[in-house]
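User: Continuing from earlier, I have the next pair ready.

Assistant: Great, send them over.

User: Here they are, in order.

Assistant: Folding the first of the pair now:
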Amino acid sequence: MQKYWALLALLFIFGSSYALTAPVDLRFENVLPGGFSEITLPITSNESTAIILSTAGPAAKWIVVSPSQGYANANFPLKARVMVKPPAEALPGTYIAYVITDQPNSDSATGYIGPAQTTKVLIEVTQKQIIQAQVNSIEVFEQDGKIVGLADVENTGNLNITPKLSLELQDAQLSADTTDVEILPSRTATIETKLPANSLSSNVYTVKASVYVGNELLRQESIPVSLGKSSDGKLQNLQISSLEVGKPAIITAVFENTGANAVLAQLKANVKNDLQTEQVESDKVIVASGQTANLTTYFTTSASGNYEIRGYVIFDKSATAEQQINVEAQKAVPLSLSAISLLLFAVIGLVLFFVAKRPKRKLSTRGGRWHSPKKK
């Protein structure tokens, strides 16, 4: 009996799973036939574990999940992008699919363990075209003799948009704008405009920042910027952890406050590959005069290949010089079945089977010895 429980415990250890948490459903609204929409699917785990994502259901062919495998732990959830692309011939209506979150035993798993998490995907297809967007934030600061404007724009419609960020210094008769960023439906992007300011004298200027989609003004702010003052901060180092598809990569910036007063510092980084550009940022941290601080942010790679990472630190309406890192993301280790692990499970299963089938022993009254009951 003791052997039986030992083997059962061994099987439990090899087959134990961690608690995964995923949303119950995702709702895609107002998607055009032949259009596009995207929602982030966050997956958390109480312990570090590998995750495999797959699709099922009537509309499964419309869905792409990226990355389709990865890792999650208590500090870094796996943020998978669920992208919906209905065919051009899709009729208006509501369609259903499922994203299945499963958990292999290990990188050399014998199979899947624990109950799979199923997220229901509801896709509402419409023929009504919607041009709509919102501006989440606007920032203006001085960097390397230029006035830089950033606007975080979210496409809340179902058509591609090309927003414009305009910067204007009315006193100096200077202006600049940009329209080179196309944003797909449901996605958010940071658009940037730079206004040369080398010819301006040292002073505090008011910058009018305006964001448009077409002729529609989405948001406008007047922001003071001080030019000509010496830089009171320095980005000493920018580095990134190793890149592997599906795993969180940490970007770290070492910032030094060389000024006389404490500042509120924040790392901003643009992560670019062949597919798209992603903007990430750290939390804002107070850095005392003469002190250094590590500012960190992270992102999860969804595809292998070369990545260009440009980072800088914003502080006190100014920004440090930009630093750039070029790094290659390695392909994820396939979470496939292992013959060795499969054989191990087979052996344990057979042993448990024969132990359970062995005839029970009884205590003999002759000399206190164990013996099997005699066959009749």
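And the other member of the pair:
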Amino acid sequence: MKTQTIFTALLLAGFMYAFGQQSPSIHWRFANPVVYEQWGDSFLQFDIEISADRPGTFHSDLQVYLDYNPGAFGENVAASGNISVERLGLLSGNVSGAEKYIQLPPGVPGVDNMVSRHACLTEALFRVPRQNFMNEAPVLPEWGGLFRYRIRILDASETAGISFVAADTRGIPLMDDGQYYLNRDFTNPLKYGQDDLFSGLYENNLLDFPLTPSGAFAGNETGISIFSDGNNIFIKAGEVSDLNLKLHDVYGKTVLSASLSGNHEYQVTASVVKGIYIAEVQDGTEITTKKVFLSR
């Protein structure tokens, strides 16, 4: 009897441990939304970031569904070529020349799930819950980037109307019940706990985000604003100004230097290795700095 009691207790403890390991939550948010102009067109750019509520979850297969305002961006933005999707840090890395994660379908910026709904799916190529094969999701309050979206704006008088889609109008789960991870105890894909039992999984939305280009540049004390679209650095001054731009890598080394004159808006193409840089702009005695991400 004693042996059976011990066995039952161990079995129950193992079940409770396994259950606990199978139900971490994944949180989603929109980050860094900005509107900018380039070559006569206006674009909305934003990042999608995730965070887990406990350490040790290596994200596997993820699904992103976004509803958007067709009055602002048109319908079927993937088929019309009005959207681009760039993978960020949590979908980066390779193993022996093969990418850790693949985007589905490959070679295209997602698909049109409906006329005003966009879908982007990813899969882990190697299902080995170790950092050299997969990427571990950051833990709240830290966040990590999955995708950077850029959508061409057709009518800037509209608002973005963008939100995550947990389920369709029939209640069939889309983003809910469709996110998977691995950990060191369970090496088969497990679902993140994402249903009505959890709250706060979708932290924000861009439903009312304005689409006027002025939203691209947040003012500061010097009147200088700096923004990057991943390939270029955009600088805007309050008036026509002669500026000096320096771009520093994370070690403080200057990798680009340029003198800008005769205008109040500038675009500088930075042919540098993909990564995070510090853009430093000097206007007379005033210096403005901004952390930028470049992916050329």
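Worth noting for the second one:
The CA atoms of residues 189 and 281 lie 47 Å apart. The chain has a mean pLDDT of 79.
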